[in-house]
TrEMBL record:
Annotated GO biological process: chemotaxis; signal transduction
Segments passing through the bilayer: 267-294
GO molecular function, one term: transmembrane signaling receptor activity
Gene Ontology CC terms, in alphabetical order: plasma membrane
Pfam family, one: dCache_1
Organism of provenance: Marinobacterium mangrovicola
This protein's name: Methyl-accepting chemotaxis sensory transducer with Cache sensor
Organism superkingdom: Bacteria
UniProtKB keywords: Cell membrane, Chemotaxis, Membrane, Transducer, Transmembrane, Transmembrane helix
Length: 622
């Protein structure tokens, strides 16, 4: 919401007026509140003093009569009932009596009956009077018959007799007088005994009720004459207390706070109404006055609006009709329009130049961007080629390293094979020697077998001859008859032994023949093995020579692979550096292209701004 100048002028004035009226009202309310509190306190204290005076006078009237009787009572006890009756009727007692030092009880007429064995010396009122030695007021108590609230006034006898004079009084007259005291507002007057129990209360059922059963002790006034606030029976009350020093009783006065402050509330509403009326009157007066004073400003605003919403005619001027602040504003406005007219003319010229420069800059930016895009395309291809070459070089270097490693492994394997071939050749040499030695042994075995064959032939010839001799011996034994029987048996055994020897010789001969054949085969195999061993030695020598040649070739290949790998690594480093340089050039080219695009966009924006500025300046008629 936009406020007008008149509203902005009126609002602070009315706000200040409102603040002043509120401050005045608060101050008046505070002063009025103080006055009301003082008046309330004065009224409450006056009521309490009136009640205090009434109670003191009431007790003094009763007590003076009793004290005078205690002072001047005749020593003749026979006359005491008459005197007691007279005092009872004159002072308004319900009963007067004397408790003697001998335990007798003398009462006014008619005397109520006493309990059997009643001894006044054992009663609290008797002991209290004796203890104090002066007029004493007992705590209120409920009488037996009738059951009404009573108090007793006691005084020791002053006539030389030993005893206590006492009188019982109903509290009804006292409480009725207290509760009938008139006050300005709705109130309650309570009388509290020294023990803290109620003596007088608007509700008679609260007699002897502890006051803290009705009002919390912490809400009672702490000091005499102090007024505090209490919420009781659904209403707010002013509360004050006063103590009666002679009896220790307390007066408690509760005043309806709403009634006590109703005059203040009415006066506050009256002040509020007066303030509101003043506010309305001042607002109307200020509205008319400000409207009259701002008429020149309205005319000035109207003219400025015509200039602003028209065709931008800067040739218009305001008429200066007065020499006050508004006239100075009109004069300053005319000077401003004149300077603005000159400025607009210069801006129009600068706008034309700016538009031409913007178009030229946009065209140059477009050409630069085209060249930079072409250069960036070439650099991208160069960067891609360098990257591919770097990757290929890396693969070549890796393969060269793998080739060198493979050549080294082949050389190592060749050396191991060469060692194995050398060991094999040495083993074959040893085997050939052992085969040769075994061939000699087998030849010796063959010779021994031949020797055994000759021996067997000899044994076989001996066996045949032995057989012939045995046969001859058998023939001779047969001829000898009985005498040659033993010789015949021996000849038969010799013949049998010769036969078995012949058979064994045949078997041995067969075995030796078989052994000879095996020996011949072994000799033949040994010779063949020896020949093959010599051939293997020659092949091993040839294989060792070939392996040495392979080892030399592998060493040469490894050296060349290492050189190739080193050269490729150098080429890879150069390729990487070239690729990095190309990437940097491409990055710079991209930045240059971005700058060229930004330059073209700024040139375009500048051209648009120049066009818009020209359109704006064309709206003014300078």
């Amino acid at each position: 919401m936009t406020l007008s100048f008149r509203q902005r002028l009126l609002i602070p004035i009315l706000a200040l007026l409102l603040v002043g009226l509120i401050s005045l009202g608060l101050s008046a309310n505070r002063m009025l509140n103080n006055e009301v509190q003082q008046a309330t306190q004065s009224e409450i204290n006056s009521t309490l003093r009136t009640a205090h005076t009434f109670i003191d006078g009431w007790l003094k009237a009763k007590g003076d009569v009793l004290a005078a009787l205690a002072q001047h009572l005749d020593r003749d006890e026979q006359r005491w009932p008459e005197a007691l009756t007279l005092v009872r009727d004159a002072a308004g007692y319900d009963l007067t009596y004397v408790g003697t030092g001998t335990g007798e009880m003398i009462q006014s007429r008619p005397a109520p009956p006493l309990p059997e064995g009643y001894d006044p010396r054992k009663r609290p009122w008797y002991a209290a009077a004796k203890r104090s030695g002066q007029l004493t007021v007992t705590e209120p108590y409920m009488g037996a018959s009738p059951a009404v609230p009573l108090i007793s006034l006691t005084s020791p006898l002053k006539n030389g007799s030993d005893g206590v004079l006492a009188g019982d009084i109903q509290l009804a007259s006292l409480t009725q007088e207290l509760l009938s005291l008139e006050t300005r507002w709705n109130s309650q007057l309570w009388l509290i005994g020294a023990s803290g129990k109620l003596i007088a209360h608007p509700n008679e059922d609260h007699f002897q009720t502890p006051v803290d059963a009705l009002i919390p002790t912490d809400q009672l006034p702490k000091a005499q004459g102090e007024i505090s606030t209490l919420h009781y029976q659904g209403r707010d009350w002013f509360i004050a207390t006063e103590t009666l020093p002679d009896t220790g009783w307390r007066l408690l006065l509760l005043v309806d706070k709403k009634e006590a402050t109703v005059a203040q509330s009415e006066l506050v509403w009256q002040l509020g109404g007066i303030g509101l009326a003043i506010m309305v009157v001042v607002a109307v007066v200020m509205l008319v006055l400000v409207g009259y004073l701002t008429q020149p400003l309205k005319r000035l605003a109207s003219l400025m609006n015509d200039i602003a919403t028209g065709d931008g005619d800067l040739t218009q001027r305001l008429t200066v009709e007065r020499n006050d602040e508004l006239g100075q504003v009109s004069l300053a406005f005319n000077q401003f329009i004149e300077r603005l007219q000159t400025t607009i003319r210069e801006v129009i010229q600068l706008t034309l130049r700016l538009n031409d420069d913007a178009q030229t800059s946009a065209e140059q930016s477009r050409l630069t961007l085209t060249k930079v895009d072409h250069q960036q395309h070439e650099l991208s291809q160069l960067s891609a080629a360098a990257e591919q070459m770097s990757v290929a070089t890396s693969e070549i270097a890796s393969n060269a390293e793998l080739t060198a490693d493979a050549a080294q492994n082949a050389a190592d394997s060749t050396r191991v094979g060469l060692n194995v071939v050398e060991e094999n050749r040495a083993g074959i040499d040893r085997l050939a020697q052992q085969v040769n030695q075994a061939g000699g042994v087998i030849g010796e075995v063959e010779e021994q077998v031949n020797s055994i064959t000759g021996i067997l032939a000899t044994i076989q010839g001996v066996a045949e001859q032995t057989n012939l001799l045995a046969l001859n011996a058998a023939i001779e034994a047969a001829r000898a008859g009985e005498h040659g029987r033993g010789f015949a048996v021996v000849a038969e055994e010799v013949r049998s032994l010769s036969s078995r020897t012949h058979e064994s010789t045949e078997e041995i001969h067969a075995m030796i023949e078989a052994l000879k054949q095996v020996t011949q085969q072994a000799v033949s195999g040994m010779k063949s093995s020896e020949s093959m061993a010599h051939e293997s030695v020659e092949k091993a020598v040839q294989a060792a020579d070939r392996l040495r040649q392979i080892d030399e070739s592998n060493t040469h290949i490894r050296d060349m692979a290492v050189q190739i790998a080193s050269a490729v690594e150098e080429q890879n480093a150069v390729s990487s550096e070239m690729s990095g340089n190309t990437e940097q050039i491409r990055t710079v080219s991209e930045a240059l292209a971005t700058q060229a695009r930004d330059g073209r966009e700024r040139a375009t924006e500048l051209s648009e701004v120049a066009t818009a500025l020209k359109e704006l300046t064309d709206r003014f008629r300078a």
